[in-house]
Amino acid sequence: MKLNRIFVVLLLSLSLTLAGSGCVSQGEGAEDEESMDALAESEVSNIRANPVTPWNPEPTEPVIDPTAYIHPQASVIGYVTIGASVMVSPMASVRSDEGMPIFVGDETNIQDGVVLHALETIDEEGEPVENNQVEVDGKKYAVYVGERVSLAHQAQVHGPAYVGNDTFIGMQALVFKAQIGNNCVLEPTSAAIGVTIPDGRYVPAGTVVTSQAEADRLPEITDDYAYRHTNEAVVYVNVNLAEGYNA
Hints:
The protein is an alpha/beta fold.
């Protein structure tokens, strides 16, 4: 009898130890833990739908080409389209939760600390705010960035805004309520506000262009311009970075 009692105590002790270690009755608990992990991940995801707001009752998920690369420390939120071979670097923010949609064309790069955002494009009555939109091929956008564009470190493109193909927006440059043509360069810390920059022009470093007369007088990019081929090189690097990171 004494030996039987000792055996029962040992069995009970072993069962409690195994249960405490998670080796017994794991099935349901493991599923619950996985569900909680998935929920937590969705709530902190760097790629997610916009929230419901008084001016936009519909959450919209970003549409991202599978060949694009979004760094885990970058954020892409809401009604955003990102094209093929786009590179989005750490701490960049593409946030379409106020003005929408935001479009980013193929082989464009969005470098560290870049911000794409826009003013409200729909009012609280559900009516479009026309002044806060740009039109491209018959469609309205809050921000439209074309193909093979470089948005260098800490640049800001704040809608309503349009950036044409093969254009370089330099470090800490600003585009706001402006349209930038094809094959342009905004040198570092320059700004274009409320103007249209014609194709093939550059804005010298530190220059702030706020009138159309100033924009029309901007110098043309010629063969001897120092940054004539900068964008081509930057695009090449970042397209290959996107491919490399995805690999």
